[in-house]
Specification:
Layout: E1 6-12, E2 21-26, E3 29-33, E4 49-52, H1 55-58, E5 64-68, H2 74-77, H3 80-83, E6 91-93, H4 95-107, E7 117-119, E8 127-129, E9 132-138, E10 147-153, E11 156-160, H5 178-187, E12 191-195, H6 209-221, E13 226-229, H7 235-247, E14 251-254, H8 257-269, H9 282-287, E15 293-297, H10 307-312, E16 326-329, H11 338-350, E17 354-356, H12 372-382, E18 386-390, H13 394-406, E19 421-425, E20 430-435, E21 440-444, E22 447-448, H14 453-465, E23 467-474, E24 486-490, H15 499-512, H16 522-541, E25 546-553
Parallel strand pairs: 3-5, 5-6, 6-7, 11-12, 12-18, 13-15, 13-16, 14-15, 16-17, 23-25
Antiparallel strand pairs: 1-2, 1-19, 2-3, 4-21, 8-9, 9-10, 10-11, 19-20, 21-22, 23-24
Helix pairs in contact: 4-8, 6-7, 15-16
Length: 554
């Protein structure tokens, strides 16, 4: 009988879109599946990215036997440059994913980590990682070389689907290996971890061919330039645009740093093909008539620094939007990004462009994830003893759990977890046993983890109500308060129009002091001034600015 219990610990991706990361632990061995990031929500002011909290793993870094990446999207590989500064292990992934990870590691100046990368060609022979054996199998997704994992443990086999859908006419010829899933199901599966992103959508997900046909029709009918924004990692979508452009006698210009880097890498690896002369340099693009040009760029999520957002602000280095341009955003906004995307679309309309996006032109984008009928088919083939819905917001996980019940899995054996929950499995049963930190780690500029919920709370406070600085002048030798405090307002009221309010605020601040002419304890002054001024301003304005007392010694 096994001496240890199997522990499955999601550090991200459950109850949210993105940040996918899971640990699987047995005894002294741990493997990690994916290391993704999440784009910040609107209230995360100033935050650039959100990554998983690996404090649990950091304390057990010597037990990490391998990192297994299912595919090359940012929500599955984007946190690697940050995590690899703290933990190291062999990294296993498919060829295109390897190329995308290599680009990211070089950008992060982690060239020494490149030696840890190992390319796997599905269906792969078993990869030994401590007590685990891991095999890759192919799945269809919106990026080539996506894979699922067969993870053999001392207690039984785990199937991790990664992100997948069933596409019988894929753009780059990659199908989900249903025969492999069926064969593994016949052997007996301990645990199925399956993608839940579109578990609330009935029916089947349309094929990527739908997008190719829609883009070809738009490009063929457009009178001016066609500008298409999509994710930089959507290599299959870039290939569809190139194919459509060539079919209609147009040239292609690629812009946006990540789009250019990924496209160059994909060409070198043979995943992206274009006829000689199709892809243009900037000087060639400027000379090309608009009716003969297609531009591929980043910015489908409205990111402020992306190529499309810069075009919408008229500060792109090469492209100025003009009437007659057709702009296509070939993606669905990530939850939280809707306002950014809408702002870019509005600005493009103001410039006279024709804009097509998924809400008004559904064919320009299809989902990369399985809908209900596809999820039910996988459940019927695998027939797991235990079922763990992964990858999705909480309602998606619940919907997927309900599908599991419909397919005959005992509800007691289905687990809807949140980030940090620990699922323990022994030879008799499975149960939730405790919780580790699954918190957000914020990346702000060069800082990783130095912004926390308190900092974000203060930023939100400043953004909503502004700030009032109360400057108290103190005599250095005696500690006496000199004169009336100064009051400076930023983002709270207009100084010229509210001079009377500020004057009364000075008097309140003075009266909050222990008494004019007395030596003061600055900690006491700080508290009294802060509380007194805050209470006065709320009574007068019904607003709560951040009050910052400042001492100046003279």
């Amino acid at each position: 009988m096994p001496e240890s219990k199997l522990r499955v610990i999601p550090l991200g991706g459950l109850g949210e879109i993105g940040r996918n990361c899971m640990l699987i632990e047995y005894g002294n061995d741990i493997i990690m599946v994916d290391a993704g990031l999440m784009f910040p929500e609107e209230e995360m002011l100033g935050v650039d990215l959100v990554i998983p909290d690996i404090s649990y793993l950091r304390e057990r870094a010597d037990r990490l036997r391998g990192i297994f990446l299912t595919h090359g999207h940012e929500d599955h590989i984007g946190a690697l440059p940050y995590l690899l500064r703290e933990v190291r292990a062999p990294i296993y992934c498919t060829r295109l994913t390897n190329g995308l990870v290599s680009v990211k590691l070089k950008e992060a100046r982690l060239n020494d980590a490149l030696q840890d990368l190992h390319v796997v060609e599905p269906p792969s022979p078993p990869i030994r990682a401590g007590v685990f054996e891991v095999e890759f199998f192919r799945v269809a997704h919106s990026i080539p070389d996506a894979a699922g994992l067969v993870i053999r443990t001392p207690l039984g086999t785990i199937i991790h689907t990664g992100d997948f859908k069933l596409d019988h006419t894929p753009v780059m010829g990659q199908h989900t290996d249903l025969s492999r899933l069926s064969a593994e199901g016949d052997k007996g599966i301990l645990l199925l971890c399956s993608d839940s992103t579109y578990a609330e959508v009935s029916g089947f997900t349309p094929s990527e061919q739908v997008v190719g046909e829609a883009l070809a029709q738009i490009i063929g009918n457009a009178e001016g330039r066609v500008i298409i924004a999509t994710f930089a990692s959507l290599i299959a979508r870039v290939q569809q645009v190139i194919d459509a452009a060539e079919r209609h006698g147009r040239k292609v210009f690629i812009t946006g740093r990540s789009m250019m880097d990924n496209s160059q890498m994909a060409q070198e690896l043979g995943y992206l093909r274009a006829k000689p002369g199709t892809l243009l340099r900037p000087d060639e693009m400027r000379k090309t008539p608009h009716e003969k040009l297609v531009i591929i760029c980043t910015g489908s999520q409205g990111e402020p620094t992306s190529a499309l957002a810069r075009m919408a602000r008229r500060d792109h280095q090469y492209v100025d939007i003009v009437p007659g341009d057709t702009v296509i955003t070939s993606s669905t906004p990530i939850p939280g990004n809707e306002a950014l995307v809408d702002r870019v679309i509005d600005n493009l309309y103001k410039m006279g462009a024709r804009v097509l996006y998924s809400r008004i032109a559904p064919g320009v984008h299809v989902r990369g994830h399985a809908a209900q009928e596809e999820l039910k088919l996988v459940l019927s083939l695998v027939r797991p003893r235990y079922f763990l819905p992964i990858h999705g917001e909480y309602r998606h996980l619940v919907h997927h759990a309900q599908l599991g019940t419909q397919m005959g899995i005992d509800p007691q054996n289905i687990f809807v977890l949140e980030d940090g929950d620990v699922l323990e499995i022994d030879d008799q049963e499975a149960y939730i046993e405790g919780h580790v930190s699954g918190d957000y780690v914020y990346v702000d500029g060069l800082g990783v983890g130095d912004v926390d919920s308190l900092v974000l709370r203060d930023r939100k406070h400043l953004a909503s109500d502004g700030m009032v600085v109360v400057i108290v002048t103190i005599e250095k030798r005696t500690g006496k308060v000199l004169g009336l405090p100064e009051v400076v307002s930023r983002g709270f009221v207009d100084v010229e129009e509210s001079e009377d309010l500020l004057q009364r605020t000075r008097e309140v601040a003075l009266h909050s002091l222990p008494g004019e002419g007395h030596a003061v304890d600055w900690a006491l002054v700080n508290t009294r001034v802060k509380d007194g001024v805050a209470r006065f301003l709320h009574d007068e304005t019904h607003r709560r600015p951040m009050v910052l007392p400042v001492a100046v010694e003279v």
